Amino acid sequence: MPSNNTTNSAKSVELQDISAGGEGARALFPGNLDLISGLKVNLSVSVGRCEITVAELFALKEDSLLTLDAGTNDPVEIYLDSRLVGRGELVVVGDQFGVRITEFGKTGGR
Predict the structure, then answer these.
(1) Of 50, 66, 76, 84, which has the most beta carbons under 10 Å away?
(2) How would you classify the pairing of strands 43-46 and 96-104?
(3) What architecture does CATH give domain 46-104?
């Protein structure tokens, strides 16, 4: 068994001053989207909102109606996760709803 007669010693470390993105530095993400192009993200569309009390919430039943704060011609909001990224118009596509994008990427997020 080795003996524990070794002495721990500390040495000073000299740090070298470097500038961010030094000469000849290669960009880690050079704008090539191939790396993440197959990544799936979730977009959601908000048609409107309403505010109710907890008592009203617990009184809801099937066939209850909630009146939203948006009109039928008001723009809908498009969210990427919880960040507002666009607006559009609600449309019907066959037997499903769709959104015609009218503004994208220029919104003042919420």
Answers:
(1) 76
(2) unpaired
(3) Roll (2.30)
